Amino acid sequence: MTAQSEEPRLTMVLLPGMDGTGELFAPFLEILGQDVVARVIDYPRDEPMDYDQLTEFVLQRVPNDDQLVILGESFGGPLAVRVADRLGARVAALILCCTFLRNPTPRWAPLMKVAAMFPLNRLPGFAVNHVLLSGLNDSALIRSIQRATASVRSRVLARRLKAVTRLDVSALLAKLTAPVMCIEGTNDNLVAPGTATEVQMLVPSAHTVFIDGPHCVLQVAPKVCVEQIGRFLHALDDN
Predict the structure, then answer these.
(1) Scanning 34, 35, 79, 86, which has its CA 20 to 30 A from the CA of 159?
(2) Does residue 236 carry a pLDDT above 90?
(3) Is residue 2 part of a domain?
(4) Residue 3 lies in a domain
(5) Taking Cα atoms as reference points, which of 13, 25, 3 lies closest to residue 92?
(6) What is the pLDDT of residue 110?
(7) Residue range 175-208, pLDDT digits in tens
(8) Which residue range forms the structural domain that includes residue 60?
(9) CB 189 within 8 A of CB 153
(10) Checking DSSP bridges between strand 10-15 and strand 37-40, what pairing results, if any?
């Protein structure tokens, strides 16, 4: 008797922001629970890599046989687009969270100024609070962000920041066939509003959600994010 082939399981691959540690996904993963198979792919903490190198790094670590939902946060958003382009039909959905498709300068000018005064892995609390949290004054989250960035070599973060200035994945996104979701924080001090509009122009079927929160909306409003992502994925199952 020939055994029936099993349907490939669905795995959510999470690509973190500039720190690359994946540690800041903790609040989101706690709400996500065990009903969803999640795989965080953290980036090297002591080896500088640009987007080309990180794309190969991630591709070597994605599950081999699963259908994938790829979520890219901030710096990880363009990386998610690049990985989805390479994986093709294996991608069930792409989720872009508080991110950008091309060089966000001059929006990042304040961050560049702070980076010139402090090592990138030793950012002061006031800078984290203003740029990433839009003044929420969440001391526990500020410390978590500082711990995550402190674990990464400053030259590694500098290489990632430089990679952003040479970025444009809009053409790659436009040719993707996978469903796309775009999440934006309504009070994001780091990424300018408009990415969702650009995504919608490139992918007219894209599902856009605006969530009340700062750049770190996955950390500040994880329950709302999980609920919105769940609705998006369930809608795909119904189609």
Answers:
(1) 86
(2) no
(3) no
(4) no
(5) 13
(6) 58
(7) 999 999 999 999 999 888 889 999 999 999 999 9
(8) 10-238
(9) no
(10) parallel
Q: How far is CA 214 from the centre of its chain?
A: 14
Alpha-carbon distance of 48 to 157, in angstroms, equals 7
Domain count, the chain: 1
Please say whether the beta carbons of 148 and 142 come within 8 A: no
pLDDT in tens, 202-215: 999 999 999 999 99
CA distance 162 to 144: 24
pTM for this one?
A: 0.92
4 in a structural domain: no
Interval 121-155: pLDDT, tens: 898 999 899 989 999 999 999 999 999 999 999 99
Q: Cβ distance 41 to 70 under 8 Å?
A: no
For residue 90, give Cα distances in angstroms to 51, 62, 93.
21, 11, 9
- Nearest to residue 230, comparing CAs of 104, 90, 69? 69
Residue type, 159: R
Q: 50: domain CATH number? A: 3.40.50.1820
Taking Cα atoms as reference points, which of 212, 219, 172, 204 lies closest to residue 77? 172
Q: Report yes or no: 103 and 78 within 8 Å, Cβ to Cβ.
A: no
Q: Is 194 helix (H, G, I), strand (E, B) or coil?
A: coil
Q: Band of the pLDDT at 65, cuts 50, 70, 90?
A: confident
Strand order in the sheet with 67-73: 37-40, 10-15, 67-73, 91-97, 180-185, 207-211
| Residue 156: inside a domain | yes
